[in-house]
Amino acid sequence: MAASILKTIACATARSTLPKTFRISTFMHLKVQKRGYDQYRMRYLKEMYQKRLDVGPEKQRRRSEWINWNYDAEIYAFGQRLGEEFNESTLRQAFINRSYVEGERKKREELGIDIEAVPLQLEDNTELAEEGFALMSSYVKVYLRNIYPYMFEEGISAVHDYLTTDKMLAHIAKHVGCEDLILSEEFPVLESTLSTAFKAVIGALFNDKGQEQAERFVRDFVITQLIEKDINELWHIVNPMGLLKAMLSLNGKGEPEPRLLWKSGANTIMSLYWVGIYSDKEFIAKSPGETVLIAEEMAAREAIKRIMKTDDSRAPLIIGRAAENLMLDYNRVNISAEDIIQKFYEKSHSEKNSSTS
């Protein structure tokens, strides 16, 4: 108690008698405790960092090699995380790759175990993957045909192929948590193995919950990959001006007439040309390009996009709750660009024969 009183009196005396700068430093020295600093800490961290560089990156290991791995809990959590109720045995089969079954059989042969006497009760996911891919492929085409009823069948097939590639399905499977659950001999898991597992998950859901639930799963996880994606870029049209000419002719309109609207920087590397396409003196579309030919081709593509109603002002995809009551025509097949060109040539050929006769 006496020591604290003497300390308070000393502080008051110092504030009153000493200069201002010295008084502040003395006050801070009395109020703030000194921070301890380990003089060897920086040297230690540098040494550990150098050792980490010398050893190199950590070896990639399977998730099952970690001490906190529980496969049964992860299988249960997979369905709960996706909001789906799977039959546990079916879901387990969806993650068993064929290479894993073959590897287990080889191990039994090396140990001298009679496979016929003690059969290996494991089935791979090949059959489930085939069922899942058939359902996914069919539903993707049905959905696209109904959402884009004026798009040509070639465009529908191009978008379908983009969504059902191994690369895309492996990307989806990895982000929904399939990678750690797959039982396979190879590691890291290949894209084809991830894709097969995801198809098998769809097949498992189809067997357990029916077609409607499996199609909803495909819509929520596969078709949503088209969000912020220009579907017109997925279909490469070889001769857009020829296709546009055939479309306009079959609709009773005149041939497309490209016209140069304006240009800038024609003699520089930053040249820009705007070409518009007209039919019967009616404006159809316009587009820029580095050259007149490029601008003409891009304008023809823009016109086809407007006719198919897949231009930038198209309606967004119907997904989520809005798609639950979506009435789809499963028998619908869109018109083909090849059929339009064939009809156009047949029409022009018949007109030519009639004019010569």
Automatic annotation (TrEMBL):
CDD domains, per the entry: DSRM_MRPL44
Q: Where is the RNase III domain?
A: 75-210
Q: Which family does it belong to?
A: Belongs to the ribonuclease III family. Mitochondrion-specific ribosomal protein mL44 subfamily.
PROSITE patterns for this protein: RNASE_3_2
Would you name any one GO CC term? microprocessor complex
What this protein is called in its record is Large ribosomal subunit protein mL44
Tell me the compartments it is located in: Mitochondrion
Protein keywords = Mitochondrion, Ribonucleoprotein, Ribosomal protein, RNA-binding, Transit peptide
Species of origin: Elysia crispata (lettuce slug)
This entry's Gene Ontology molecular function terms read: double-stranded RNA binding; ribonuclease III activity
Its principal location? mitochondrion
InterPro entries, alphabetized = Ribosomal_mL44_DSRM_metazoa (IPR044444), RM44_endonuclase (IPR055189), RNase_III_dom (IPR000999), RNase_III_sf (IPR036389)
Q: Which GO terms describe its biological process?
A: mitochondrial translational elongation; RNA processing
